[in-house]
Design a protein that fits this description.
- By secondary structure, the chain is an alpha/beta fold.
- It is built from ten helices and eight strands.
- Residues 1-8 have low confidence and may be disordered.
Protein backbone atom coordinates (compact mmCIF):
# COMPACT_ATOMS: atom_id res chain seq x y z
CA UNK A 1 0.00 0.00 0.00
CA UNK A 2 1.05 3.59 -0.60
CA UNK A 3 -0.13 6.49 1.52
CA UNK A 4 -0.71 10.00 0.23
CA UNK A 5 2.97 10.92 -0.04
CA UNK A 6 3.95 7.60 -1.58
CA UNK A 7 4.70 5.83 1.70
CA UNK A 8 4.86 2.08 1.33
CA UNK A 9 3.80 -0.41 3.95
CA UNK A 10 1.67 0.33 6.98
CA UNK A 11 2.94 3.71 8.20
CA UNK A 12 1.86 7.09 6.81
CA UNK A 13 5.02 9.18 6.73
CA UNK A 14 3.18 12.13 5.29
CA UNK A 15 1.73 12.43 8.80
CA UNK A 16 4.48 11.14 11.08
CA UNK A 17 7.69 11.68 9.14
CA UNK A 18 8.00 15.45 9.00
CA UNK A 19 10.39 15.79 11.95
CA UNK A 20 11.87 12.32 11.65
CA UNK A 21 15.43 13.44 10.92
CA UNK A 22 15.51 15.57 14.08
CA UNK A 23 15.15 12.54 16.32
CA UNK A 24 16.37 9.69 14.13
CA UNK A 25 19.99 10.59 13.53
CA UNK A 26 22.66 7.97 12.78
CA UNK A 27 24.31 6.38 15.79
CA UNK A 28 28.08 5.97 15.10
CA UNK A 29 28.32 2.57 16.82
CA UNK A 30 25.46 1.18 14.74
CA UNK A 31 26.83 2.72 11.56
CA UNK A 32 30.19 1.04 12.21
CA UNK A 33 28.48 -2.33 12.75
CA UNK A 34 26.66 -2.02 9.42
CA UNK A 35 29.76 -0.97 7.52
CA UNK A 36 31.70 -3.87 9.03
CA UNK A 37 29.00 -6.28 7.87
CA UNK A 38 29.21 -4.86 4.33
CA UNK A 39 32.85 -5.93 4.14
CA UNK A 40 34.61 -4.78 0.97
CA UNK A 41 31.45 -3.95 -0.97
CA UNK A 42 31.89 -0.93 -3.22
CA UNK A 43 28.32 -0.59 -4.53
CA UNK A 44 25.39 -0.81 -2.12
CA UNK A 45 21.62 -0.44 -2.40
CA UNK A 46 19.86 0.99 0.65
CA UNK A 47 16.24 -0.19 0.65
CA UNK A 48 13.71 1.81 2.64
CA UNK A 49 16.43 4.41 2.98
CA UNK A 50 14.38 7.05 4.78
CA UNK A 51 16.44 10.14 5.49
CA UNK A 52 19.66 8.22 4.85
CA UNK A 53 20.82 7.72 8.43
CA UNK A 54 23.04 4.70 7.86
CA UNK A 55 24.19 5.11 4.29
CA UNK A 56 27.94 4.68 3.90
CA UNK A 57 29.49 7.81 2.42
CA UNK A 58 32.82 6.40 1.20
CA UNK A 59 31.28 4.04 -1.36
CA UNK A 60 28.68 4.16 -4.12
CA UNK A 61 25.19 3.97 -2.56
CA UNK A 62 21.86 3.86 -4.36
CA UNK A 63 18.97 4.75 -2.06
CA UNK A 64 15.39 3.54 -2.52
CA UNK A 65 12.63 5.32 -0.58
CA UNK A 66 8.91 5.44 -1.47
CA UNK A 67 7.93 8.26 0.92
CA UNK A 68 8.18 11.77 -0.50
CA UNK A 69 8.23 13.16 3.06
CA UNK A 70 11.32 11.10 3.87
CA UNK A 71 13.07 11.79 0.59
CA UNK A 72 12.76 15.51 1.25
CA UNK A 73 14.61 15.11 4.57
CA UNK A 74 17.69 13.56 3.03
CA UNK A 75 20.79 15.77 3.47
CA UNK A 76 22.05 17.35 0.26
CA UNK A 77 25.35 15.49 0.64
CA UNK A 78 23.53 12.22 -0.03
CA UNK A 79 22.31 11.06 -3.45
CA UNK A 80 18.69 11.61 -4.38
CA UNK A 81 16.66 8.54 -3.49
CA UNK A 82 14.84 6.49 -6.10
CA UNK A 83 11.06 6.43 -5.66
CA UNK A 84 10.39 2.69 -5.47
CA UNK A 85 9.35 -0.04 -3.06
CA UNK A 86 11.31 -3.00 -1.75
CA UNK A 87 9.00 -5.47 -3.45
CA UNK A 88 9.72 -4.03 -6.93
CA UNK A 89 13.30 -2.83 -7.12
CA UNK A 90 13.88 -1.27 -10.56
CA UNK A 91 17.34 -2.76 -11.07
CA UNK A 92 18.80 -5.69 -12.96
CA UNK A 93 19.98 -8.87 -11.28
CA UNK A 94 23.36 -8.58 -9.51
CA UNK A 95 23.47 -4.78 -9.87
CA UNK A 96 25.14 -4.22 -6.48
CA UNK A 97 27.82 -5.74 -4.30
CA UNK A 98 25.60 -5.60 -1.21
CA UNK A 99 22.27 -4.39 0.16
CA UNK A 100 21.16 -2.84 3.44
CA UNK A 101 17.81 -2.16 5.10
CA UNK A 102 17.58 -0.46 8.50
CA UNK A 103 14.41 -0.18 10.60
CA UNK A 104 12.22 -0.81 7.58
CA UNK A 105 11.41 -4.50 6.98
CA UNK A 106 8.56 -4.41 9.51
CA UNK A 107 6.76 -1.87 7.33
CA UNK A 108 6.91 -3.71 4.02
CA UNK A 109 3.69 -5.00 2.48
CA UNK A 110 5.34 -8.26 1.38
CA UNK A 111 8.41 -9.14 3.44
CA UNK A 112 9.38 -12.28 1.54
CA UNK A 113 9.18 -10.55 -1.81
CA UNK A 114 11.16 -7.55 -0.58
CA UNK A 115 13.95 -9.70 0.82
CA UNK A 116 13.96 -11.79 -2.34
CA UNK A 117 14.38 -8.60 -4.36
CA UNK A 118 17.31 -7.52 -2.18
CA UNK A 119 18.97 -10.87 -2.70
CA UNK A 120 18.28 -10.70 -6.44
CA UNK A 121 20.04 -7.38 -6.95
CA UNK A 122 22.97 -7.98 -4.55
CA UNK A 123 25.81 -10.40 -5.21
CA UNK A 124 27.17 -10.22 -1.67
CA UNK A 125 25.85 -9.58 1.84
CA UNK A 126 22.33 -8.43 2.58
CA UNK A 127 22.41 -6.58 5.90
CA UNK A 128 19.20 -6.02 7.88
CA UNK A 129 18.98 -3.96 11.07
CA UNK A 130 15.77 -4.81 12.89
CA UNK A 131 14.35 -5.81 16.26
CA UNK A 132 13.62 -9.24 17.66
CA UNK A 133 9.87 -9.33 18.38
CA UNK A 134 10.48 -11.91 21.13
CA UNK A 135 12.44 -9.28 23.11
CA UNK A 136 10.34 -6.16 22.53
CA UNK A 137 8.20 -6.51 25.67
CA UNK A 138 11.30 -6.72 27.89
CA UNK A 139 11.67 -2.94 27.69
CA UNK A 140 10.40 -0.91 30.69
CA UNK A 141 8.09 1.11 28.45
CA UNK A 142 5.83 -1.94 28.56
CA UNK A 143 4.83 -0.81 32.07
CA UNK A 144 3.30 2.35 30.59
CA UNK A 145 2.42 1.69 26.96
CA UNK A 146 2.02 -2.06 26.42
CA UNK A 147 -0.19 -1.36 23.40
CA UNK A 148 2.71 0.43 21.70
CA UNK A 149 5.13 -2.40 22.32
CA UNK A 150 2.54 -4.96 21.29
CA UNK A 151 2.24 -3.05 18.02
CA UNK A 152 6.00 -3.24 17.59
CA UNK A 153 6.14 -6.93 18.46
CA UNK A 154 3.33 -7.69 16.03
CA UNK A 155 4.91 -5.74 13.17
CA UNK A 156 8.51 -6.94 13.48
CA UNK A 157 8.99 -10.22 11.61
CA UNK A 158 10.65 -13.10 13.42
CA UNK A 159 14.40 -13.41 12.96
CA UNK A 160 14.14 -16.94 11.59
CA UNK A 161 11.66 -15.77 8.98
CA UNK A 162 14.05 -13.07 7.77
CA UNK A 163 17.00 -15.45 7.73
CA UNK A 164 15.06 -18.09 5.83
CA UNK A 165 13.79 -15.59 3.27
CA UNK A 166 17.31 -14.37 2.54
CA UNK A 167 18.47 -17.88 1.67
CA UNK A 168 22.09 -18.96 1.87
CA UNK A 169 23.52 -18.51 5.35
CA UNK A 170 22.59 -15.82 7.85
CA UNK A 171 24.23 -14.57 11.03
CA UNK A 172 22.29 -12.75 13.75
CA UNK A 173 24.33 -10.31 15.85
CA UNK A 174 22.79 -8.60 18.92
CA UNK A 175 23.57 -4.88 18.99
CA UNK A 176 24.09 -3.23 22.40
CA UNK A 177 22.51 0.21 22.48
CA UNK A 178 24.64 3.10 23.79
CA UNK A 179 23.16 5.23 26.59
CA UNK A 180 23.49 8.39 24.49
CA UNK A 181 22.29 6.74 21.27
CA UNK A 182 21.61 9.42 18.66
CA UNK A 183 19.06 7.34 16.80
CA UNK A 184 15.83 7.78 18.74
CA UNK A 185 14.12 4.45 18.28
CA UNK A 186 12.20 3.27 21.31
CA UNK A 187 14.92 1.45 23.27
CA UNK A 188 17.43 4.23 22.58
CA UNK A 189 15.74 6.12 25.43
CA UNK A 190 16.24 3.32 27.96
CA UNK A 191 18.08 5.70 30.29
CA UNK A 192 16.40 8.93 29.15
CA UNK A 193 12.71 8.40 29.91
CA UNK A 194 11.93 12.10 29.67
CA UNK A 195 12.32 11.85 25.90
CA UNK A 196 9.02 10.01 25.65
CA UNK A 197 7.29 13.15 26.93
CA UNK A 198 8.23 14.91 23.68
CA UNK A 199 5.57 14.47 20.99
CA UNK A 200 8.22 14.64 18.26
CA UNK A 201 10.18 11.77 19.78
CA UNK A 202 7.06 9.61 19.88
CA UNK A 203 6.08 10.60 16.35
CA UNK A 204 9.48 9.44 15.10
CA UNK A 205 8.61 5.94 16.36
CA UNK A 206 5.87 4.74 14.06
CA UNK A 207 4.32 2.30 16.56
CA UNK A 208 2.83 5.25 18.48
CA UNK A 209 0.82 6.20 15.38
CA UNK A 210 -1.09 2.91 15.58
CA UNK A 211 -2.60 3.43 19.04
CA UNK A 212 -5.50 5.63 20.06
CA UNK A 213 -4.83 9.10 21.40
CA UNK A 214 -6.40 8.02 24.69
CA UNK A 215 -3.79 5.26 25.03
CA UNK A 216 -1.00 7.75 24.46
CA UNK A 217 -2.47 10.25 26.92
CA UNK A 218 -2.82 7.58 29.61
CA UNK A 219 0.72 6.30 29.11
CA UNK A 220 2.38 9.71 29.09
CA UNK A 221 0.37 10.93 32.08
CA UNK A 222 1.49 7.88 34.08
CA UNK A 223 5.11 8.27 33.01
CA UNK A 224 5.15 11.99 33.79
CA UNK A 225 3.68 11.28 37.22
CA UNK A 226 6.25 8.58 38.00
CA UNK A 227 9.11 10.80 36.88
CA UNK A 228 7.86 13.63 39.09
CA UNK A 229 7.39 11.37 42.13
CA UNK A 230 10.62 9.45 41.65
CA UNK A 231 8.79 6.14 41.16
CA UNK A 232 10.39 5.57 37.76
CA UNK A 233 13.86 6.11 39.20
CA UNK A 234 13.16 3.75 42.07
CA UNK A 235 12.48 0.98 39.60
CA UNK A 236 14.72 1.85 36.68
CA UNK A 237 17.06 4.64 37.78
CA UNK A 238 20.14 2.44 37.37
CA UNK A 239 19.60 2.63 33.63
CA UNK A 240 20.52 6.32 33.64
CA UNK A 241 24.13 5.30 34.37
CA UNK A 242 24.21 2.02 32.43
CA UNK A 243 26.56 2.46 29.45
CA UNK A 244 24.70 0.09 27.12
CA UNK A 245 21.39 -1.75 26.97
CA UNK A 246 20.97 -5.26 25.59
CA UNK A 247 17.55 -4.95 24.06
CA UNK A 248 15.84 -6.31 20.96
CA UNK A 249 18.09 -4.65 18.35
CA UNK A 250 19.93 -7.03 16.03
CA UNK A 251 21.86 -7.09 12.77
CA UNK A 252 21.13 -9.93 10.36
CA UNK A 253 23.77 -10.53 7.71
CA UNK A 254 22.75 -12.87 4.92
CA UNK A 255 25.38 -14.35 2.61
CA UNK A 256 24.64 -16.08 -0.71
Amino acid sequence: MRAGDGSAGDADYARIGRGYSTYRRPEPFLRAAIEHALGDARTVINVGAGAGSYEPTAIDVTAVEPSASMRRQRPTRLPTAVDAVAEELPFADASFDAAIATFTVHQWADLDRGLSEMRRVATGPVVIMTCDPARVHDFWLDDYAPEVLETEARRYPGLDRISDALGGSAAVTPLPIPRDCRDGFSEAYYGRPEMFLEPGARLANSAWSFVDEAVTDRAITALRSDLASGAWDERHGHLREQSTYAGSLVLITGSP
